User: Fold this.
Amino acid sequence: GGDCWANYPSMEQSLRAGLSLLSSGFGFWSHDIGGFEDTSTPDVYKRWCAFGLLSSHSRLHGSSSYRVPWAYDKESVGVLRFFTRLKASLMPYLYQCAVETHQSGVGLMRPMFLEFPEDRSCRYLANQYMLGPSLLVASVMDPQGIVEYYLPSGIWTDYFTGQTCQGGCWKKEKVSYLDIPLWVRQGAVLAVGQHEDRADYDYADNVTLKVYQPQEKETVTVTVPDLYGRVDSQFEVTTLDGVTKVSRVKGSKPYQIRIFN
Assistant:
């Protein structure tokens, strides 16, 4: 992401630059959590942890000081732990997105207009992005914890609370360090893993398929890769007459289903 300074303006500039690169053929993009030059305040560091762990790949890196969380304060340790566990649990989804990026060239992180080209409000959004095709992330870059962002049309589900919101609107919130706007797109099926303690594990074993606002007469194919990017398990999720059915196409490992209506 470049050797940026360790403050909120540089955090914003890093994301804008990253979205520009991801619009120009780059498939993956990362940045230095906490900034590179100088040393950030604990406040900036904790917000950058959330942003950094919800990027395509994540690293703690700086020039004049270590970026380990215990060098900032005790709360930073908990924040980094929380978002590291979140990312580890999302690895079945994220790793399949990475495989598709490798195959298609479409970035794992992507500017809003790439997923919603007909929505004029998405054309110049610089502080939010899609993480894969299904997750919307709005980074918090304000010392008061205030974040303002846009939800395109459709029904969106808050990943943390399960609450829904009708899109086509702007939202403004004040969030804690253990929170970030993370919304799931209508019709998405997320493959979520059973491990939060490491990034490399058997993604298909006891995977949970989270089905969000399934659409009538639509079929969604969900692929769960192995650690080499090959298809381990595959499912088809179809909704007909209000009944959602999950069919296994490939694989034999146990799995679970959760439906969010």
Remarks:
- The mean pLDDT is 95.
- The two ends are 38 Å apart (CA to CA).
- Residues 8-184 form a domain with the TIM Barrel fold (CATH 3.20.20.80).
